[in-house]
Amino acid sequence: MEQKTKIKAEDGSQELVITREFDLPLELLFKAYSEPELVEQWMGTKVIKLENKNHGSYQFETSYNGNIVFKANGTIHEFSPNQKIIRTFEMENLPMGVQLEYLEFEKLTDDNSRLTMQIIYKSEKHRAEQLKLPFAFGINKAHDKLQEIIKNLK
Amino acid sequence: MNLRRDVFQAIADPTRRAILLMLTTQSMTAGTIASNFETARPTVSKHLQILTECELLKQEQQGREIYYHFNPTKIKEIADFIEPFRQMWDTKFNKLETVMKNYKSK
Q: Which three-class secondary structure state does DSSP give residue A95?
């Protein structure tokens, strides 16, 4: 089966390209990135600030058991509805530094769309830190969450 | 079955990691590998089977014996850490799709 989400990360390069085709019209895909309450739902984080405009900025924050476990922020360089978002992204207190993101939204058919996310890191080393993240953080977190759900079932 | 995901399940087990580590320096038969562990031989065989299915190991017949080799290409894929990262995004994007489909039908 062909994978819906693809990642291109060439050796020796400091960027990643993530592409995904969605079973959604372009306008809905773009909305998922621009409406704070929708971003919150799929990203699983609280949106503190989201200024959808050129030279705007944004802030995300996630709490777990009353503690803030994830904080991210960035500035929006360009915001072109249904086309493009150029922004920076930084996860606070993590070693991957600030990254530059080019998000391109494309219409494929009336019901399908594609997102291409080009992420540029400070160096190849910073990119490697990012790739280790699911091991260091994501998988454990999912595991914790699972344990919590099971605990609540008892 | 998602074989690619299995590569990561394969290396999540400490015995399997120890087997991989042993085989980085030389090829060995199942018997030699098993003699390095206190675990029962069928258990070691099961680990070898999983590692072979995930292509982390390759089998080679030499006379009457089957030798296990380490497959560097597959290991590199893990070293690059791309697959779990991809899965993380895939999960997020699936969620996005679900959220937006519900939103549309409202």
A: coil
pLDDT < 50 positions in chain B: 1-5
Query: Which pLDDT tens digit goes with each residue over A4-38?
Result: 899 888 777 899 999 999 999 999 999 999 999 99
Task: Give the distance from residue A115's alpha carbon to the nearest chain B alpha carbon, in angstroms.
Answer: 10
Cβ(A110)–Cβ(A24) below 8 Å: no
Q: Which span out of A92-96, A108-112, A128-132 was modeled with the highest average pLDDT?
A: A108-112
Mean pLDDT of A131-150: 52
Does A138 sit within 8 Å of B82, measured CB to CB? no
- The span from the CA of B57 to the CA of A151, in Å, is 38
User: At a CB cut-off of 8 Å and minimum separation 6, what does A77 contact?
Assistant: A54, A55, A86, A87, A88
Query: B81 and A131: CB-CB below 8 Å?
Result: yes
Chain A residues within 8 A of B95 when measuring between CB atoms: 41-42, 44
- Chain B interface, mutation test: which of A131, A137, A139, A141, most B Cβ atoms within 10 Å? A131
CA atoms within 13 A on the CB side of A59: 5
